[in-house]
Amino acid sequence: MAKSVDPEKPGRIKQLRMIAQIIKQANPKGMPIVFLSAVGTLAVIVVIGLVTDYLWYSVFLGVLAALTVGLVVFGQLAQRAQYSILDGQTGAAAAVLQGMRGNWQVTPAIAVNRDQDLIHMVVGHPGVILVSEGPGNRVARMLAAEKKRVARVVLGVEIYDIQCGDGEGQVPLGKLQRHIMKLPRNLKKPSINEVKDRLRSLPKNVPMPKGPMPKGARMPRGPKMR
Q1: Taking the complete model, does pTM exceed 0.70, yes or no?
Q2: SS3 for 188?
Q3: Which sequence ranges are marked TM in the entry (predicted)?
Q4: What stretches of the chain show up as alpha helix (H) in DSSP?
């Protein structure tokens, strides 16, 4: 039986064009940098082939290397563009967290105050991670309260609290994924599933923040957790 094609799902080429437009808007020099990095890689390898008398082999190898380098640079610029677009939006940290690779469960906005400061919850190998959005002087008390509430149902599990923002002692949005992936691996997969089951008992009566949460943030994926 033939698989149905979702007409709303863009093709790979169309997706790349959309991402290229986003990069161009965030950084007009972005796409020329991608092109020059690929061409420069090809040129260096071809020159090496000329010197060593392996021209045709170097051309083949150079094309592969140029495509690889171009895609890597393209992905890095796409991720930076994503962060620049999300920065300052309500729920930006949640959008970035949901783009992480690996066995992560992200629950956005488990706590919201009247100033629209947010706390998101992430469950993974490190344990439970609470990530706040908002000024440090406002979210510190929220984080302490949520940490105490979560600790009641995940006894013995490590709980981390991270303030996402540009203030002193906070983790910038663009470094949030990497910061979380550097946390120690305290839990194995069966224990992670057990923690998820325990957390389902927490009440979910928190009002959502006003305005839409950022969407489409999974475009560039973060590095895999080592």
Answers
A1: no
A2: coil
A3: 30-48, 54-74
A4: 12-26, 30-52, 55-86, 92-97, 136-151, 176-181, 189-199
